[in-house]
Amino acid sequence: MAGNIRPETMERITTPELAKAFIDEQIAEVRAQVGDKKVLLALSGGVDSSVVAALLIKAIGKQLVCVHVNHGLLRKGEPEQVVKVFRDELGAELVYVDAVDRFLDKLAGVEDPETKRKIIGAEFIEVFAEEASKLDGIEFLGQGTIYPDILESDGVKAHHNVGGLPEDLQFELVEPVKLLYKDEVRVVGKELGLPDNMVYRQPFPGPGLGVRCVGAITRDRLEAVREADAIVREEIGKMDPVPWQYFVAIPDVKSTGIKDGKRYMGWAAVIRAINTVDAVTAQSVEIPWSMLTRIRDRIIAEVDGVNRVLWDVSDKPISTIEWE
Ligand code: XMP
To answer: How many domains does the chain have?
Structure first.
């Protein structure tokens, strides 16, 4: 396998032809590395793990075992899409783990953001390790490491993500896209036939909607975040150019609404759209008024419990991209 440094002579993968050549080369390398042994891969449905899964399926077929952990904090339709694309269409050996109750029970009542992240990270590793222990003959671990992860091992992602794999899961790594930049991973994913909404997906934090259901997570408010997020992704996704990241957060704050002449308590959904180069600084993106009001109308009509819609126009710094 190649080392951890991208050779200066390595051409930037910008075309389907270059992607195809890269895929062929990696297939040969992975086959040589793995032989007839099995590889385990945590498949979140994000760009990097999805591209690695598609590549490894091509290289070693059923010798790859994908584990998709649904922790209840994924976006609307995501777990279903992972199963549809990888198990039904690509014929992957896929273990789907419904761990929603486990995660949400552990998170109940927990307000502190970093404690929430730690719980989600630790529980994820525990679920993954449990699944791994049920499988025989695994000798390798697939990983969607990309080049910026290596370059910025003390960067934003590393700062947020907690925990590592336990000792007994220290398999030899298979990291076929570790020398690629994100844009190249997308070109390779497209060439592998993955759907556009998977390949051109916006960044999504590991703890998922957990950090957008601000404060202690409750199932009803989490559901409201998921529904409102789907609306915002659909509507803001129509902008040209599409912002780098756009989503909804619902803080644990009460908001008064009025329906049929009666006052009641609900929540306020906060829309956020930002542009950034490296996520270290970020600028709020101007959303056209007609789009904002359409989003407002849809959220109020379609999302249970939300009776107020706000637009977060803050830049980073001082405001981080996520609310917590
Ligand atoms: P912040 O909120 O720190 O976010 O300005 C910068 C970028 O990182 C993402 N983010 C995370 N990514 N695990 C991740 O993998 C996390 O815990 C996490 N928290 C924030 C955020 O979505 C943004 O793109």
So the answer is: 2
Atom number, ligand 1, closest to the C-alpha of residue 207 = 17
**Same domain, residue pair 223 and 287:** yes
Pairing of strands 245-249, 306-311: unpaired
Determine if the pTM surpasses 0.85: yes
pLDDT at 201 over 50: yes
Q: Is the CB of 274 under 6 A from ligand 1?
A: no
Expressed as residue numbers, the domain containing 284 is 212-312
The first and second tokens of residue 1, run together, are 């396998």
What one-letter code names the amino acid at 323?
A: W
d(CA 155, CA 242): 24
Helices (H) and strands (E) in the chain, counts: 11, 10
CA of 208 to the centre of ligand 1 (A): 9
Q: Does the pLDDT of residue 1 top 50, yes or no?
A: no
Peptide bond into 241 cis (omega under 30): yes
